[in-house]
Design a protein that fits this description.
The chain is an all-alpha fold. The chain has one domain. 59% of the residues lie in helices and 0% in strands. It has six helices and no strands. It has helices at residues 23-34, 44-55, 67-82, 85-89, 100-130, 138-159. Helix 3 (67-82) packs antiparallel against helix 5 and helix 5 runs antiparallel to helix 6. The relative contact order is 0.19. Mean pLDDT is 78; it is low at 36-41.
Amino acid sequence: MSGFLDGIRCGDCDCTVDWGERRNAIASVAAGTLSFYRGPDFFTGWWIIIDAAVKYPSEGDFHHAYHTCGVIATVAFLMINAVSNGQVRGDSYSEGCIGQTGARVWLFLGFMLAFGSLIASMWILFEGFVVAGKTVVYPGIAIFFQNAFIFFGGLVFKFGRTEDLWQ
């Protein structure tokens, strides 16, 4: 999956665009559009939940403790992308108190938090809004989409980049 931009041709024209060199920028913009980490581009997930919080400020329609899932997803996003693929493979990280094992444990914990927040947002959507028979379901949908966008943005940012340019 990490080399899908390398073989893209631009139709039948003879223009050769080297997408491989722009791969990190494309992955950063795509991940930023899905989540809320990379400045102005990282907005969709948090923008949805901010809209729901402004539209339904009462505690009865939208319980404010539901923001916890988005915060945990954002922390997981940062944890997943704080560890490079070289550190996980053991290519570029051999010092420190734990080394490669510590990088793998950190990445595993980040993925556990990301999956946990995504599953919790689904549970909040269905248990808190759909099954409960509330007439206002948009806050539950907003919580789910916020966590889904952050989760998929983290995956795109982690696996869409190449580390060859960092060396």
